[in-house]
User: Fold this.
Amino acid sequence: MNGLINQINSFFAMVADQFTRCFIDENRYMYLVEGLGNTLIITLAAVVIGILLGSLTALVRITYSSKQRPGVALSLLNAICGLYLTVVRGTPMVVQLLIMYFVIITSPLVPPLVVAILAFGINSGAYVAEVVRSGIQSVDRGQMEAGRSLGLSGRTTMIRIILPQAFKNVAPAIFNEFIVLLKETSVAGYVGIQDLTKGGDIIRSITYIPYMPFLVVAAVYLVMVIGLTTILKRLERRLARSDKR
Assistant:
């Protein structure tokens, strides 16, 4: 019995020692703090770009499909949007990030953080576009007809009547895209950005202790995802209650 207690004490003493070496000594926890800050910056900025780009792409495709005789300009825009969706949705995120950093934006004047924001934003926009498009299509066509019967133009009806209802329908899906994007940013270290995952890897390279920093990094991601998922569930319940009114 005493031997088992000694082994348990030794184990916890080892864990405490490795935790101290990984995070307390020389304030190494700051690698994770700085990395977490960059992760949140990339995620929030990329979500904004993704929503804007995805909404514009969805509007182009919806407008094209609603026209019996679309013009040349609209047809060209629709073709570009279709190519954009096919390429971005059909290739891995990390490959897109590397192409953006080593092929498209090669200027040393552009910070890697900006490159990552653009890469993740463009990637997110392809998925948001399909979400927004499905949301617009879920709104009853009578809404457009009602707006036009009131003397509103097609553009005004879309902006003031259709889009608010569509975004309400797809809000949970867009919020879920935010959660997915938060986890996808873990590959930002491939272009020299000290994100949360890279911060853990730096600690590993200094201390030669692999599992302690990565377990803490995983725990931080898990806590953030659980928190965001809780918010998403509350949002879904609130939207469900408003639909019943």
